[in-house]
User: What shape does this take?
Amino acid sequence: MEIIEIYGEEKRRYMPLLLLADESEEMLGRYLGRGRMFVLLSGGGAAAECVVTDEGGGVLEIKNLAVAPEAQGRGYGRAMLEFVSRRFAGRFHTLLAGTGESPLTVPFYEKCGFVYSHRVRDFFTENYHEPIVEAGVTLRDMVYFKRVISDEKAEAGH
Assistant: This one.
């Protein structure tokens, strides 16, 4: 398993993975160019990806996180979150993740140490042309979860 950073137009090569987490290429276009993208490689291919953006004030936001269907259940999503937390500790104090109120994503973020932060009402209904349905739930609000990230070495005085 290896995690690499993807730059520039090369990000579009991973569109099938990106679209698993965000069904709208229009919405992807709003953050993909300014985001930093990381891909987890396993078995010779891309098993997961994560796009993060600097939202200012020490906040790093996960804009897109997806694991290929055939690679799900192997801890790759959690591995991406841990990688991003370590990579940006010391430069950011909070990792923020926005998601729909789905029985698939909410428990995942909670298990990874995220806590509820806030919600943006009607985000999905106002920003997507077609209804977004995940695990039988029609998504309406964007629910944000946050996790404090820190540089453990700096805290330990090393």
About this structure: Residues 3 and 83 are 8 Å apart (CA to CA). Residues 152-158 have pLDDT under 50 and may be disordered.
